Amino acid sequence: MMTLLIVLQFVIVVVICIAVLLQKSSSIGLGAYSGSNESLFGAKGPAGFLAKFTFIMGLLLIANTIALGYLYNSSNKNSLAEKVQIDSNTTLPNLPAAIPSAPSAPQLPNEVNSSK
């Protein structure tokens, strides 16, 4: 069932991409290559049909995504974080009692430090 929904998801995405590319935009887009569709879709052309078709396909995409999410979550009850096993016998390394301080920077003679 999940494989069928994943294949359907890819098909819906490809159909939406084609429908969006066929729509008219301010620069005509790829709709110019579809030929004369006014006689098939009516006087307004494919604009109204493609807009409604894209909207319906978008709703199908959202419904399919929700169904895929629900099926995935119901089939996998455990998360990856719950599968991690913690070893309780682990000990921390021994730290030295006193951390030695860093050596100080060497001092230059006064003659070099003074500017003229």
TrEMBL record:
The keyword Transmembrane applies. InterPro entries: SecG. Residues 97-116 are annotated as: Disordered. One of its GO terms (biological process) is intracellular protein transmembrane transport. Residues 97-109 have a biased composition (Low complexity). It is found in: Cell membrane. It holds the Pfam family SecG. Keywords: Cell membrane, Membrane, Protein transport, Translocation, Transmembrane, Transmembrane helix, Transport. It is a multi-pass membrane protein. GO terms for cellular component: plasma membrane. Its main location: membrane. The chain crosses the membrane at residues 51-72. It comes from the Bacteria. GO terms for molecular function: protein-transporting ATPase activity. Belongs to the SecG family. Involved in protein export. Participates in an early event of protein translocation. This is Protein-export membrane protein SecG. It comes from Campylobacter vulpis.
